[in-house]
Each structure stands twice: as structure tokens, then as C-alpha cells.
Write a structure and sequence with these properties.
This protein is of the alpha/beta class. It is built from 9 helices and 6 strands, in the order βαααααβαβααβαββ. The protein has a 6-stranded parallel beta sheet with strand order 3-2-1-4-5-6, with helices on both faces. Helix 1 packs antiparallel against helix 4, helix 2 runs antiparallel to helix 3 and helix 3 crosses helix 4.
Length: 229
């Protein structure tokens, strides 16, 4: 086992429970702005997730801007159901960015494992999320005190899995690759990105999804990190 000194954590779906928190924000938005858009919230969220997932793929490839992604994911749902409400996509896009980070549900065992690791390692966040959302998430969820650096792709100019975001983080932390390990849920952004630069990785895979990128380690609960670190 390597003697790691630096841990890089992804944020969404690794520590911050993105799906639950996002759904709560979207439920409020649907009730206020989109009631009657489709058969109900369940149908709306299913369409939204599929559209949002595909647009995020484009964003990671630099094929769509942050601003277009933020609005287009709502506009396409509204258009799908021929919901006629002028400028509502722009309105709810901003509402979502402001509302979603106020929800603070975390993945099971987040505070416990971070408390366990805090005095043993230098810990950092590396995320592709938007600055105006990620920073409040960390603060509102009382996660910010655990981390020395927060590396946000929007600020750095490169998104995971681009090796340049990893290289930037290594320079800022003055760490060598063999001292570092990346922990995240996304096989392509977190695991493949770290592998490409030679950094060890832990795949957080609570739903036991099919492995497409073989990680150095795989866990289903954050508490399992105790056996690795």
C-alpha cells in the first residue's frame, strides 16, 4: 500500500448527495413554475435527467457553454411538452442555481469519514461543477473546513478528465503523483482522468454500476475508505 499524503475528492454524488438535493430543488421549481407542464413531477424529472445528462456530456467536451447548458436543459423539457410560458427557462435556470446548494443532504458517512481522514492527509476537492453552486454547497453542508484547496474546473479552465486540471492541482499542492489518490463516482471524469496522469483512484460505486474503467480500488460505502487509507 502506498503512503498517500494528498486526497482529492469529487463533490457531487461522492460527498454531496446530488440526486436527492437536486430533486428537492426541482420539486419546488416544478410546483411554482411548471405545474401542468406534463403529466406530473415524475414525468418531468425523468425527462429533465435524460436531457441534463446529455448536455453535461457536451459540456465536458467543451461543445456547449455553461450558460447554454444551464438554460437549455430546462428549455428542452418545456419544448418537449409544448409548455407555453415566456422566458420561464431563463427564470428557472437562475432559480435552480440559487436554490439547489441550499439543500444539504450528504452521502452516507460523509462527515464521519472526513473527520477520520482530516488529521492524516491533506484533503482537496476537485469538481467540474459551477463555482456559484459548488462553493455554497460546501459551506452550507459544513464540508469546507475539511479541505485545503477547492479546484473548480470553471476557474482553472480545464475539466476532468483533462489531465491539465490534475497537473494544475499537483502544482498548487506541491504534491507528487505517487503521493496522491483521487476519490470519485464518475468512471470517466474521476477514474479515467486520474489514471491517465498516473494517479491512484478509488471508484465510489454505491449502486454497483457496471465497471467500464477499472479503478485501483472500488468501494460501495465511504466507510470502506478506512481499509485503504
Amino acid at each position: 500500500m502506498k503512503a498517500y499524503k494528498h486526497i482529492f475528492f469529487d463533490l457531487d454524488r461522492t460527498l454531496w448527495n446530488f440526486d436527492s438535493n437536486s430533486d428537492q430543488a426541482l420539486q419546488q421549481i416544478y410546483t411554482q413554475y411548471l405545474n401542468g407542464c406534463c403529466a406530473g413531477f415524475d414525468e418531468f424529472i425523468k425527462s429533465y435527467r435524460a436531457i441534463n445528462h446529455n448536455l453535461w456530456k457536451l459540456y465536458r467536451r467543451n461543445q456547449i457553454s455553461k450558460e447554454d447548458l444551464s438554460v437549455e436543459r430546462f428549455r428542452r423539457v418545456i419544448q418537449k411538452y409544448s409548455f407555453d410560458s415566456p422566458n420561464v427557462a431563463e427564470i428557472i435556470s437562475q432559480e435552480y442555481l440559487e436554490l439547489s446548494p441550499t439543500f444539504t443532504e450528504l452521502c452516507e458517512g460523509t462527515h464521519e469519514i472526513l473527520h477520520y481522514l482530516k488529521d492524516k492527509y491533506h484533503m482537496h476537492i476537485m469538481t467540474n461543477g459551477f463555482k456559484e453552486v459548488q462553493v455554497p454547497k460546501l459551506r452550507n453542508s459544513k464540508l469546507d473546513a475539511y479541505f485545503e484547496h477547492v479546484f473548480i474546473s470553471e476557474e482553472i479552465g480545464y475539466k476532468k478528465p483533462d489531465k491539465r486540471i490534475y497537473e494544475y492541482a499537483l502544482r498548487k499542492t506541491q504534491a507528487s503523483i505517487d503521493e496522491c489518490i483521487m476519490i470519485g463516482d464518475d468512471q470517466h471524469s474521476d477514474i479515467a482522468g486520474a489514471k491517465d496522469i498516473g494517479m491512484d483512484q478509488v471508484l465510489f460505486n454505491p449502486k454497483q454500476e457496471k465497471i467500464e474503467v477499472i479503478p485501483r480500488f472500488e468501494i460501495r460505502k465511504l466507510s470502506e475508505l478506512r481499509a485503504i487509507l
